[in-house]
Amino acid sequence: MNIDELKKKYNDIKIDDLTGFKRIQVKENKDEEFYQDLIETVKQYDGKISIANGIVGNASKEGFLQAEEIIKKVIDGINPEWTKKQKAAYIHYQMGKLVSYSPDFNFRGRYVNSPMANDTRNIWKSVVSGESVCNGIAALMRNLLSRVGVTTSELSSGTHNFVLAEVEEGNIIIDPTWDLKSTLYGARPMYFGKTYEQLRQEEEHISDAHKLENPPENVVEITDSELREIYHSIGYAKENGKFIFPLLDEVNAIKSKEYNNMEEKLNDFFTMFTQKFPKEAVHLSETRTILETCIYELGIEPENLITKFVYDKDDKYCQNPHLSLFIDDEEINKQMMVLDTDLMQIKGIDISEFDKNFKLHDLNNVQPFWKKYLSIDEKTNEELEK
Amino acid sequence: MFEKTTIVFKNNIKVGIFMEWLKKLIRKLLKKDEIKLIEMPKEKETIKAVGNNFKLKLKQSADPERDDRNGYKIIKNIRLRDMI
Questions:
Q1: Which is the most buried residue in A5, A185, A253, B32, by most CB within 10 A?
Q2: Interface confidence (ipTM) of the complex
Q3: Is A103–B70 a contact, with Cβ atoms under 8 angstroms apart?
Q4: Which CATH number fits domain A3-233: 3.10.620, 1.10.3470, 2.60.40, 1.10.10?
């Protein structure tokens, strides 16, 4: 069908004639038939077109169709006989593989209006780029769930968006963003089916991310045992209810070996990690926190590890972060490392070499922590250059 | 006449509007064209034990990547074995 026919059939879509292209704005929670009609319309359209699920963010025709291929693969993984809880659990578990959290950094009250800011709120751009923020991630999850018959609504605290899904017994609260690390690395989801009271009790005085002016009603809890049962039934937990989480087995294997020193142990871990988890490793936000957890597990105290996103000095708009890790304890003395996602290695780097090549985000006015480790000569040269 | 100056503050200073005012004042007094204010990072940790098996550790730091309005400033001091 053409655009006019689409508009006639679905009168809640918005079509704008802009300079040089048409913009179709659709809701994220329509059924599968709608998106199939939309795909056909976009394919047929002979001209420039953009597809959006909100005021900001535009997916091109090619981007939209590419994303729809990816989405189709996810939907095809759903057993139509599953309950709504099972479908929701399955979709929740795909989110970590689909997208990585890519925040708009809050630099002292100035929110970065990065070129990516709008893209990360568009469902299809998020799927193609693999990067999104909480409202994009929530919109994507709602989109996927609506296609398989699960009704959802958006929950928003004002600073964070998450999802309320209607299942057989009532509503369940899901935070796909906060669970990205778990769902990417195959661990136990921690934000699937908690009640509002449970979330607030855990986070009171710490975070208002889940604090709602009007908490949802008829919320049912998914207990730990039920969670494990559901995930076992869809193939992501073992019969004993434990999640597959292959990284834990690998770390335990390293812990059980003898090493001459901590440096050798960590090098073995980094080699294993980049070899066995290369697809996961490029999801930088999630990889950052999982590496922190692993390094803690291997014996480095959290206060002796600093992780930072840094940028090449010639990265004008700070669009391509690198993950840096710095360890300084009794055994590992001031070791700087960088995750090189091209070579898929975690490489040690001399601090002065690091300082020459990398910077913090341009809007970050904090003194880079590594500066204090530069030699006096290097610091003097830097001051002279200024 | 047109000079850059970098001033390093070691104490915790509230930024935003105050920093902009401070920069304007320094520019005026010292007749400098560009001022860059660099703040030393501050860290404050609060550990809260909750009724389940893991501790929540709030790390209020100057690291903007951990304070992006989405509550990512919660750093769960969780063990790998608790994620299974």
A1: A185
A2: 0.82
A3: yes
A4: 3.10.620
